[in-house]
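Shall we go through a protein fold together, starting from nothing but its sequence? Please make up or recall a protein chain and show it to me in full. Go ahead whenever you are ready, and we will take it from there.
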Amino acid sequence: MDDEQRRLLEVLHGELPARFAICAETEAGGGVLGWGLAFDDEAVVVPTNGGLPNPFSGIKAALRLYGMVHPVRLVWVDPPDSRQLT
């Protein structure tokens, strides 16, 4: 995405979401469990197992759910800039 496209999206939709991955931390090395978009007031995660996108109240809520099976960690694809995303 070039700078002009980014500015147009910001004007139309406000802040652009920051992309992230939720990764499993296992002895075997883990892997990506879901890809997500972090908005100011919510996060949406698409699981890599073919499931439907899941909306969450924020990144912490998504990490809690995905972390119920095994330890997970958040990996940013796009830094969230100076925003405080929960």
Observations:
- The CA atoms of residues 24 and 67 lie 8 Å apart.
